[in-house]
């Protein structure tokens, strides 16, 4: 018969040892990188949103400053004289100086009928009406206002002949942007403020209006960039007219301001068409940025542009690459260390098996003294001892057979039967050894990693300052590790069948002892305990198992009441049954809980495992009884009733 190819058991042990380790490290890698990246991206986007709020404050500050300038000028008594006589007079020089010193694009004096009396930046044009301007209308109604306005070239030409040329911006093709309807944008975006002018009696006799043009004006965006980003490279701010950049600190390939480029189409649909904020990554001119956009509206509420701040994704991507590299290094180092340890352990485990195989081959070849060296105190050592015993007995039996006469068939048959029985024992021993190895492997795979996680978390917690931010996350790790240990223990109790040891049990002292232990271990300042015992109740049951049942029910009742309430323990007996009732004044059972309450792994507590009531249910069933659960009818809370069969008049 040809010899079959086989794989070394040592190789299998190495593979089976490394495979869970590598899988665990890879899973931690993927989950860790995902969580860290998401956290970093969320925090970076939050910072951008904060910077946008700061940028809005800067814009509002400029509007408030412009409004203060106009208001203070309108309060001058000479302004009332100007509007009373429709002549500028000596105020002309003051208004000219104000226009130059405050970098105003225009400054208009308007009478009570909305007619322009004097344009400081264009004195030759006057007499037209501006009452249709919302800000001017509010000023004539006695309320100063400020806001953003989009002005057409005709209006700018009337206000200041220099404005149309300054406002013209050539549109530049931009990736991922929607097609623009113009080749050259001629409209202008302005910060505008108005204030009422009153006479000495306080009656509104006109208004003063002023504006600052934002087209190609870098002062505002540079101020925003400097304040919100400081020395952080890559951060930028932009003012949009529609979806066109009219003022920006974003730079193009030549290092110049990217004025005339367009907003990406996806952002345009949200910010300009829907009038909503954008807080997400966005394509900005030539790359991806963590961006925040807010629409700019005119006094009528129409969206006329947007304010933007953002920072490039490149630093975040570089950090993501470094995290990946770190986890990759951990994977490689862990695999190398695991390979060395697994090779050493598998060698120690495989050596006795090889010796067993060699001994079996020697015996099969006719050698009668094939003893195997025994080392250690584990299952393999026991198997080797049994194998040596078997070999010795085989030798003894063979000598007896050679010395006995052929006529002693009964003795030979008896000895043969003994050998067969011993072979069965050896087979059972081998199976037990395999089960032992499997149990040891499962315990190793669960308990050792859990102990390592808990130990490292405790070391990390001790190494961190008490006020450090990660203390909360480390505490969560320790809390969840303890919860896993409790779940494993309860699952083991649930899956393991424990034989009951019935005996006489007096019910009242058992319940009193449970209550005293619970109060001693965790004082209950706000809980009142009422005992309603029927005297003389005795049970024939396993006292330890009943203690587990009643302890679980009482603890559940106390947890349902949090820190205040009334816990009632009541016992009643008749000729057929004993009833033990646990009543609380907590929140009661959910509507869908009564049918699934005793189902394994179902729980209504955030930190529960869902096994306590299942274990209690099984114990009561083994005693021939049952558990009932319901909400109280006389007050808020729940009642659990344990019904056990009676053995006599007093159970």
List keywords for this structure.
about 650 residues; alpha+beta; Beta-Lactamase; Heat Shock Protein 90; 5-stranded antiparallel beta sheet; about 50% helix; about 20% strand; elongated
What does this structure look like?
This protein is α+β, with helices and mostly antiparallel strands. Among the domains are: 62-165 and 185-210, PAS domain (Beta-Lactamase), CATH 3.30.450; 500-645, Histidine kinase-like ATPase, C-terminal domain (Heat Shock Protein 90), CATH 3.30.565. It is 50% helix and 20% strand. The strands form five sheets. A five-stranded antiparallel β-sheet has the order 2-1-7-6-3, with helices on both faces. The two termini are 72 Å apart. Mean pLDDT is 79; it is low at 427-441.
